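User: Can you help me understand a structure? I only have the sequence.
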Amino acid sequence: MRNVVQRISGSHDMRMVPVAAGMWAGCLVGKWCWKDHTLNALIIAMACCVITCVIVKQRMKISKCFQRFQRFQRFQRFLYGNSASIRIHNYSQRIFRITNTARYWLVNWRKTMSLATYVCIAAIMLTYTTQCVLANDIVMQSIQTSGVPNAQRYHRTGDDNDIGASENEAEFSIITPLRTSKSMSGDCQATVQVRKFAHFASYARAKLYAYSPLCNRLAYGATVRVPVRVGTSRFNSDVPEFRIAKSQATVRITEQPDIFHRTMSALWQSFYEVTNKLDMQGRMLVPGVTVGMLGQEYVPVESEPKQAADSTQAELIDETYATMTRRHFQHAGIMHVMAVSGGHFLLLAVIIRRCCAYFLTPRWFTAFVQIVLQIMLACIVFPSASVLRALIMGVISAVAFCFKRPYQSVSALSWTIILVLFMSPSYAWDYAFALSCAATFGIVTMGVPLSRVLDRYMPSWIAAALSMTLTAQYWTLPVQILIQPEVSCMSVLANVVVAPLMDWATLCGLISLVCASCNAGLSFVFAQLASLGTDFMQQCAYWCDDTAIGVVPWASGVGGAWLMVAVEVAILLVGLGVRRMLSQRYVVNRMIILGQLLGSSGKRIISDATEVFEN
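Assistant: Let's start by predicting it. Here is the structure, written out as tokens:
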């Protein structure tokens, strides 16, 4: 007998979601076992092994139990088929429906749940092993213990004389562009990959802080050897920090940036020189919308003293203005417009496919162009977790298009989470990666159904923008509470208002970025067009933040996040209940009749009152 092939919609393929959730949960449990409960790791591992063995041995027995229960239901229907015991028969039918649903989840999904269990166990082992290896790194040992000579911690006081001015020589590669820092530990910051520390090999990643005389000499992609002070951040004790002393005037460049990093640095420098000709909000927001790094955060790399002197003459962005603008955007709930997200990659993919469809190019060529251009887009923007997530999903989409397969958006997101966490389990407790994945999952699972419902009551473009905003907010609010315990009441309205101009500003900004190195005049024209969109966004953020109910405080910490989850579940249940009531015709008819009665009685009261006052 031929097997029946079941076709599932791409936006509803949830088979890999339990596996991705198991991978994420396993990484968090592995970190928890290593950090605070190391002795419980063996107990949890043994429990996981026992659970795995039970699932493997009992999954076929579960199916047999349900088959026996079905035979019992047939016998019960035969026994009470035409008898007077209709109530018992109805109860048995309800139990039968419940057992069928349970059988679907426990039998038909048994392989998926088994795979999720195996992946969770593997993630626990992988994360625990990774954390143990990183704990034995020379940098982490210098922080946690005093076994390494001259290794000690520093306190973030901004004083060069703290900790006795003891330093260690470190060699590291700068893997992210430098950006200005608000910390007292330095004027600029960047993420570095450590190669050597105190003459020992190292594989840790650290955050580098330096002061302004030295910031312009640290090039993106260069390998530097310089004395540093090592410490930990008060916000995340797992991330080491390197601090270059303010008195350090020179650094030793052991390896110059390659051609790729030099090209990227030159492109960014040309783009920021173009945006410096705009007004205040344009200098700040256009680079943020385009590459994910605001205008006041850019640190130019100068190799000649004359160029450095010329750069100091450029008009700087007022610090108070920048702080207030960021606060307006944050309280309005549209802070994501200042960063690169999946919208950049989705916009690029749509343009590529429409252009290739117009010229009737083959599928393999369209997929190849999409992959190449999306990789180039990921290179020219500021690296972040959301960029990595969007890039991997874009590559999966292009491959599916090449092989004429429907794009499985939820499955692609699940595979992206699994691959990223397998390569780096630390993304499991990264807020940026969690926000990006949660927003994407909410949009691809609930966005289209909600948009279809809203299409009945409003224009389609408003329904699409509103559905995306509501679903993204629904899934990201618990994570946002962990970052900042407040709820923006105007975020939905602000996102709907700025949505039409977001694509406009992004597209014009990207064109300006590409043209910056070859034609500064054309680049400035598109930068001005992008500035028109960002100006409207700034006005909208200011108006939303200026309202009396713009921001509502919320409980902080994990308790506040779980409270938000409970509130969202309650809202979802109420919405489903109202939808079920409205789907029943007699309930709608009763509500219509009740409304007519109330309306007629209200009209009668108004007419009687009018007659009384007239007489």
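Now, to help you interpret it: The beta strands are 168-174, 179-180, 188-197, 200-201, 205-210, 223-232, 240-243, 252-255, 486-488, 551-553. Residues 593 and 599 are 10 Å apart (CA to CA). Let me know which part you'd like to focus on.
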